[in-house]
Design brief:
With 445 residues, the chain is an alpha+beta fold. It has 2 domains: 154 residues, dinb family like domain (Four Helix Bundle (Hemerythrin (Met), subunit A)); 274 residues, paralog of FGE (formylglycine-generating enzyme). It is built from 9 helices and 14 strands. Strands 12-11-10-13 form a 4-stranded mixed β-sheet. The longest helix is centred in the first third of the chain and has 23 residues. The chain is globular.
Length: 445
């Protein structure tokens, strides 16, 4: 996310521009969908898309009108768009409006928000407005729901989702035009042991779970230079990885028995070939691309099969962010904001890219692709850092701390640039596969 200028007038103009662009993308993704598709619950794990749109609208209304003065009465708007009142599996039964009415509601709320923005003072003591934090928070919330909507569209029942040709990236469906498709060096990179800085003290855009910045002491370790590819994962399948109980934890083996999975989600067998579906495109699995739509349990089993393990999230961040000369970087390539020239992000490729397609997407330690393509599972439970303080509400992060969720890092092709950085922490249940998730392995030295 680009830094918002310092003067209040410039801040207001920049915020309004960012909000307009975010809304344009949201509506672009649902353009052409029928009201039936928008109302339908395509999977119990996902909301009807109209619920996501309503939630985007009412979260914005709550935080950029009602809570803007810092007197926080609610963290989520009461009513049908409150995620705690209405779990995902029940949302199809809610009285959701049609798209035309929803678009009108989105526009009405945005009009109120922009009118209030013109009166906003960023120079006072309100911590929500310091650095325009609350506006960044609401923008990132919409960006994140864009990715959630894409997860739903990948699961869409009936006719597959057809990305509109008017907004595909130049050159076609995929951002894979790069000719540099070799990442030089050994399969694993060795990271020396020592003291490193993790997290951030940024209070303009970073979420509370990324703070505070703190020092950690880490033994030397090795980590894959590249994410695990489809070709790597096919070797695991062909070697009986899904049938060998020794490779799975008790929880993983139980999940496997219940789910009857035998390959990454959206893969099917066609003779000697594996076929994968991405939105409306069905093709032979490309061995060069990062494996996607695998659960934590599958990633962990693969790592054990390969005589390795999953990295901790601390190891992952060190490998992505640490420069021995400059310290912790915001992105693997440095501190300038992420663009589609740097990594496969921002949704409009609608698929992963072959490893090596983005030559700049290499960390100082030599790890490729740590931003974009696939979220990467780590072995870490989602907990607060030492000195964590909830802000501006505990239900964003703190309510999810514990052993139920595993941390994922790095973003995916479906992640917008304004909501990814080396310190960003995603989390989900270890059984989840509808997310755009992959992994890389690590080992002790």
């Amino acid at each position: 996310m680009s830094a918002i200028p310092i003067t209040s007038a410039d801040r207001r103009a920049a915020i309004a521009g960012l909000m307009a662009e975010a809304r344009e993308r949201t509506l672009m993704l649902v353009d052409g969908l029928s009201d039936e598709d928008l109302h339908r619950q395509h999977d119990p794990l996902m909301s009807p898309i109209l619920w996501d749109l309503g939630h985007i609208a009412h979260f914005e209304e709550l935080w950029l009108t009602q809570n803007l003065d810092g007197l926080i009465e609610f963290s989520e708007m009461p009513g049908i768009y409150n995620p705690f009142e209405h779990p995902r599996a029940t949302r199809a039964s809610l009285p959701l409006p049609g798209l035309a009415e929803m678009r009108q509601r989105l526009a009405e709320i945005r009009e109120k928000v922009l009118a209030r923005l013109e009166l906003t003072d960023f120079d006072g003591a309100n911590p929500l407005l310091s650095g325009a934090y609350v506006y960044h928070m609401v923008l990132q919330h919409e960006y994140q729901h864009n990715e959630t909507i894409l997860q739903t569209l990948q699961l869409k029942l009936g006719e597959p989702y057809h990305p509109g040709t008017s907004y595909l990236v130049p050159g076609g469906r995929s951002q894979t035009a790069g000719t540099w498709n070799q990442v030089p060096g050994p399969a694993m990179v060795e990271i020396p042991g020592g003291e490193y800085t993790i997290g951030t003290d940024d209070r303009a855009a970073a979420y509370d779970n990324e703070r505070p910045q703190h020092a950690v002491s880490v033994p030397a370790f090795r980590i894959h230079r590249n994410p695990v590819t489809n070709g790597d994962f096919i070797e695991f399948i062909d070697d009986g990885g899904y049938e060998d109980s020794r490779l799975w934890t008790a929880a993983g083996w139980k999940w496997l028995a219940e789910s009857q999975c035998f390959a990454p989600k959206h893969w099917t067998r066609d003779g000697d070939d594996w076929i994968a579906r991405t939105m409306d495109r069905v093709s032979i699995v490309d061995s060069r691309r990062p494996v996607c739509h695998v659960s934590f349990h599958e990633a962990e089993a693969f790592a054990r099969w390969a005589s390795k393990r999953l990295p901790t999230e601390i190891e992952w961040e060190i490998a992505a962010a640490w420069d021995p000369d400059r310290g912790a970087l915001k992105f693997p390539w440095g501190d300038d904001d992420a663009t589609t020239r740097d990594a496969n992000i921002d949704q409009l490729s609608f698929e992963t890219s072959p490893v090596g397609a983005y030559p700049r997407n290499v960390s100082p330690f030599g790890c490729y692709g740590m931003i974009g393509d696939v979220w990467e599972w780590t072995s870490s439970d989602f907990t607060g850092y030492p000195g964590f303080r909830s802000f501006p509400y505990p239900e964003y992060s703190e309510s999810f701390f514990g052993t139920d969720y595993k941390v994922l890092r790095g973003g995916s092709w479906a992640t917008r640039p304004g909501v990814i950085r080396n310190t960003f922490r995603n989390w989900d249940y270890p059984i989840r596969r509808q997310i755009f998730s992959g992994f890389r392995c690590a080992s002790d030295v």
